[in-house]
Amino acid sequence: MQELEYEEIQGIILSGYVKKRFAAYSLLRIRSRAGAQSYLRWLEARLTTGDQRPEDVCHNVAITATGLRALGLGEETLATFPRELVEGMAGTAKRSEILGDTGASAPEQWLWGGPGNQVDVLLMVFAHRPDQLDHALQEHRRRQQDGLEEVYFRSTEMLPERREHFGFADGITQPQIKETGRHLTGIECLRAGEFILGYENEYGKVPFSPSVAEDPRANRLLHTNGQNGRRDLGRNGSYLVVRQLDQHVAAFWRSMLDQADGDERLAVRLAAKCVGRWPGGAPLTLSPDEDDPSLHSANDFLYRDRDESGRGCPIGAHIRRANPRDSLGSSAKESLKISARHAIIRRGRSYGPELPRFAADEGEEQERGLFFICVNANIARQFEFIQQTWLDNPKFGGLHDGRDPLMSGADDNDHRIPGDPVRRRLTHLPRFTRVRGGGYFFLPSRAALRYLGQQAEAPLGADLPRTVAAHHAPGAQ
To answer: Does 264 lie in the same domain as 148?
Structure first.
């Protein structure tokens, strides 16, 4: 089995820091290369990696293609990165269309990451207590002032019982990395190369990794990559997909209540049919009639034998689209292989105050939602495939219409609920989420961050004086 170089791998790949209730995300723009590199050198010494278990605060960082360019990487080097990263999440109209980023979710409407509010660096800080978070952020900002400016800031606090804003238990289904040796019942164990560059993936191959030309800096810090004259910049790194999703909680429950003709109990049942789990976490495939607390974290189940027709968990439900398990194709074995090759590790956090179920619309005045983050070694094959081919595909799993009832970009959606003897169809569902920002980021290893933070031995070009008005979210600290 491959051995992971834990001391080089950023901790967020291997841990969601679930014991650290508070987190902050600072989206930054580089205005001075020298100042930004000085900050990265300082941060590298404080970077949380996989071999650490900090008691108080964790620090991680990721960089967009524009940030890599601002730090001095040339076009030859950038060409070794995935096209998705180089173009950016909002880089083409086609990508916006396949991701469902249209209308109110179009990049032109974003708070960050869209045209005119470019982001170069994402700083992620996690802490047990808000005072620890505040202190850490103050130190970061002091160190950033000579080279970076804040485009957007968002603080988060975990909701009770690790629920998301629609009121459902979240984070139950997460793949495990086989090489860590942490194997839990019912949890998919996948090879490290699905999530970390430099290791074999589920195809039995090492994923393509970005590289730099050999020079004294690169030779001192980076592994060879098997190509003459090149050094491996990607090894022990990964790619982050980040999307800020406002959730329209009152609208969601109002819609469920309307579909249930005012019956609150039925509304909860219909909502569960949209999600695929009950609010407490029990999967509908194992407990189709009621929320069973004993199954709150159950994950050891398949669909083909127990629930092929979707009478428990509808075929179009969110969790079944996001992870079809054994339900696709001609055989369970082939479907499980397909699912394994399109998996992501989710590391997002909810932001904004909790809103009770069936609350009045006044609660929508406050921003709340999900700061979605996922880890994947191949953005196109993993995140984008899930988004386009499973979540937002009306033909998913043999269906003929309808998209993911929770995450679809459609403004007028339908959701089929099989039944015995009578099936049900939820019609004219509005969009319940709105994209407010997003980006594709390179998550460097410690060695790669050290490389990026070192002054070049030859001039890399002029600094980039740019200004931008920072946008602090309501409640920003």
So the answer is: no
Same domain, 424 and 451: no
Q: What is the percent of the chain with per-residue pLDDT over 90, rounded to a whole number?
A: 83
Are residues 129 and 205 located together in one domain of the fold? yes
Q: What's the token pair of residue 288? A: 């189709």
Residue 1 lies in a domain: no
- Residue 305 lies in domain: 244-345+356-435
Q: How far apart are CA 238 and CA 121, in angstroms?
A: 15
Q: How far is CA 461 from the centre of its chain?
A: 33
Give the count of beta carbons closer than 10 Å to the beta carbon of residue 204.
8
Q: With bands split at pLDDT 50, 70 and 90, how would you rate the model's confidence at 473?
A: low
Q: How many domains does the chain have?
A: 2
Residues 95 and 73 in one domain: yes
Q: Which amino acid is at 292?
A: D
Torsion angle of C-alpha atoms 430, 346, 141, 154, degrees rounded to 10: 20
What SS3 state is found at 44?
A: helix
Q: What is the DSSP string of 93-123?
A: HHHHHHHT--GGGSGGG-SBSSTT----EEE
- How does strand 424-429 pair with strand 433-443? unpaired
User: Can you spell out the DSSP letters for 392-430?
Assistant: T-TTGGG-SS---TTT---SSEEEEE--SS--EEEEEE-
Specify the DSSP element, H or E, that contains 235: none
Q: What is the DSSP letter of 384?
A: I
125: nearest Cα among 165, 154, 163, 164: 154
State pTM to two decimals. 0.93
β-bridge pairing 176-177 and 189-190: parallel
- For residues 281-304, give the mean pLDDT: 95
Is residue 299 in a domain? yes
Does a structural domain hold residue 362? Answer: yes
Q: Is there a single domain that holds both residue 284 and residue 427?
A: yes
Q: Which residue stretches of 100-237 are H helix?
A: 130-144, 216-221
Task: Tell me: do 235 and 255 sit in the same domain.
Answer: no
Tokens 């974003």 locate to 110
Can you tell me whether residue 149 is helix, strand or coil?
strand
Residue 257 within a domain:
yes
**Under 8 Å between Cβ of 250 and 263:** no
Q: Are residues 173 and 312 in the same domain?
A: no
pLDDT in tens, 449-471: 999 999 654 344 444 444 344 55
Structure confidence by residue, pLDDT tens digits, 368-387? 999 999 999 999 999 999 99
Residue 93 one-letter amino acid: A
If asked whether residues 161 and 301 sit together in one domain, one would say no
Nearest to 130 by CA among 138, 122, 141, 121: 138
